[in-house]
Amino acid sequence: MSSTDTETLRRFNRTYTQRIGALDESFLGTGRPLGVSRLLFEIGPDGAGVRELRDRLTLDSGYLTRLLGRLGQEGLVDVSPDPADRRRRVATLTDAGRHAWRELDDRSEELAQQLVAPLTERQRDRLVAALATADLLVRAATIQLREVEPTDPAAVDAAGRYFAELARRFPHGFDPGEPDHAGTFLLATSDGSPVAYGGVRGLSPETGEIKRMWVHEDWRGAGLGSRMLRELERLAGRLGHRRLVLDTNGTLTEAIAMYGRAGYRPIERYNDNPYAEAWFEKGLSADGSEDR
């Protein structure tokens, strides 16, 4: 990234934080700073698990405890064990907390309307489109990527979403059968929720196979699929593979195009997957990059 790019990003941060009152000790005149107000908003009328809040807001456990303590002292939030799992703690709003949440939501809406009021309709459309793009790309740049067991609850969730999409898109549906847990898998999360998933299964010491490559529909167009593919190639390199293969269905045209851009070459059928209609391979160097 050039110095001009970083300066543009930093200038926007300074402009935006000032305009929305993030620097004020009392955010939107609520008497609470931004951090406390944001936590109150995230708990919301339906409540939220403490661990979920920590993951969603990427907060240190100690800091989150202090913020919850302040909201508790103000009589806005109760933190108690989850009746369904006593090992978990759940934060819920009190009656006063729900009133404070509605006030915060109303004031946030009022501020947003004030900010765009001087703009023409065309300018508002440009602003909304630009902010939607910026939001997607910033979140894509800050995903959390980690290696997971395929039986990890978040991995099971991601695989389930992948299977559900195949069932929707394949002309005759899709039946995953008994899930095959062989392989090493990567999970990408944003705000604590899965947004991309995939794994590498060894077919031989030299050859690995990419499995369950999935990107959340809301995240497509942000380059996350290509990034996940590169990460899986690096993973394959670390596992000692020098060749990667994969199969896909002909209806997944965007995936086929991505594999082509990434240097994958069509090959003959190498497996008995009844849903596969196209097969690809790519050679890797020792570091997992493309072997030219």
Topology:
Blueprint lengths: L2 H17 L14 H10 L4 E2 H8 L3 H13 L3 E6 L2 E9 L1 H22 L4 H21 L2 E5 L4 H17 L14 E7 L2 E10 L4 E9 L8 H15 L4 E6 L4 H9 L3 E3 L10 E6 L9
Parallel strand pairs: 7-8
Antiparallel strand pairs: 1-3, 2-3, 4-5, 5-6, 6-7, 8-10, 9-10
Helix pairs in contact: 2-4
Please provide a written account of the structure.
With 292 residues, this protein is α+β, with helices and mostly antiparallel strands. The chain has two domains: 3-118, Orthogonal Bundle (Arc Repressor Mutant, subunit A); 144-283, 3-Layer(aba) Sandwich (Aminopeptidase). The chain is 45% helix and 22% strand. The strands form two sheets. Strands 4-5-6-7-8-10-9 form a seven-stranded mixed β-sheet, with helices on both faces. It has a three-stranded antiparallel β-sheet with strand order 1-3-2. β7 (207-215), α8 and β8 form a beta-alpha-beta unit. The radius of gyration is 23 Å and the shape is globular. The two termini are 26 Å apart.
Keyword list:
292 residues; alpha+beta; Arc Repressor Mutant, subunit A; Aminopeptidase; 2 domains; seven-stranded mixed β-sheet; three-stranded antiparallel β-sheet; 9 helices
Instruction: Give the full name of the CATH homologous superfamily of the largest domain.
Output: Gcn5-related N-acetyltransferase (GNAT)
What is the CATH architecture descriptor of the largest domain?
3-Layer(aba) Sandwich
What gyration radius follows from the Cα positions, in whole Å?
Answer: 23 Å
Low-confidence region ranges:
none
Fraction of residues in β-strands: 15-25%
Helicity, as a percent range: 40-55%
Mean pLDDT: 90
Largest sheet: 7 strands, mixed
**β-strand number:** 10
Query: Which quaternary structure do these chains form?
Result: single chain
The N- to C-terminal Cα distance equals 26 Å
Q: Which sequence of strands runs across the widest sheet?
A: 4-5-6-7-8-10-9
**Count of DSSP H/I helices:** 9
Class of the largest domain in CATH? Alpha Beta
Order of helices and strands: HHEHHEEHHEHEEEHEHEE
Principal-axes shape call: globular
